[in-house]
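Anyone? Bumping this.
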Amino acid sequence: MTQLTFLAVHAHPDDEASSTGGLYRLLADQGVRTVLVTCTNGECGDAEDGAKPDADHHDGDAVAAIRRVELARAVELLGISRHDMLGYRDSGMKGWPQNDDPESFWQADLDEAGRRLADIIMTERPQVLMTYNEIGFYGHPDHIQANRITLRALDFLDYEPTLYYNAVPNSVMAGMRARWEEEDRLRREADEAKGIVRAPEPESDEEPLDMGTPDELISATIDISSVNGVKFEALAAHASQIADSFWMKMGKEQFMATMTREWFLRQTNPLGLEGNVEDIFAGYR
Ligand SMILES: [Zn+2]
């Protein structure tokens, strides 16, 4: 029987856990070989004291060193068979000065980065690939770039894998948005009670990004309820970045009760699959 192999191209340490943590663990338990390519080192993450990259004492290399250790722990928890780092510097959010760093992922030459990725893909020959859509799911330059190098890598292959983008159905996105707004409201109220007045968020003249996908377009819905406790642990392994995230605030019990699915959108379809599959290797087993 052919070895089934899955490969995901992720932008930063922690992305493997947030959008594919359940899928990775599930596939590992099924004996599928799993590969993770992490494009950047995550220099623009929070420092140990929570400092953001614009703080004077924020040391990107120190942040990356901590994140490397956290990532190794997550990789172990998720049973990932092979992990490669492409080693680009984190480009930060759109418009940050880090976007212009010649060593940033945003400045990477697409042919060169695409070839490096293609070399890994050609060695592993995964039937199924995963990355983000062309807006990087939420607009982060490194996520957009992960999409671009993956598409470029496809041009260099001598076979056509099935490529999926991660996705969140609109119906689920609406619930998440309500939760974020509620958190925002509680934070504002707590601030007001303490007499803190925050400047309103600057108005943006850009169209808000559409992060959701119409439910009927979702083409893979993976039930991760049997492994989402491990997904929670893998997220928690990235403690320096997400101790404060809404997942961690949920707590493991509520996370396990609610975060039971991961969703994907098929982008290449060499097997001519139709509809919403429940197995990312549909057609290959
Ligand atoms: Zn990321």
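Late reply, but here is one note on the structure posted above: Residues 11-12, 15, 140, 143 surround zinc ion (CB under 6 Å).
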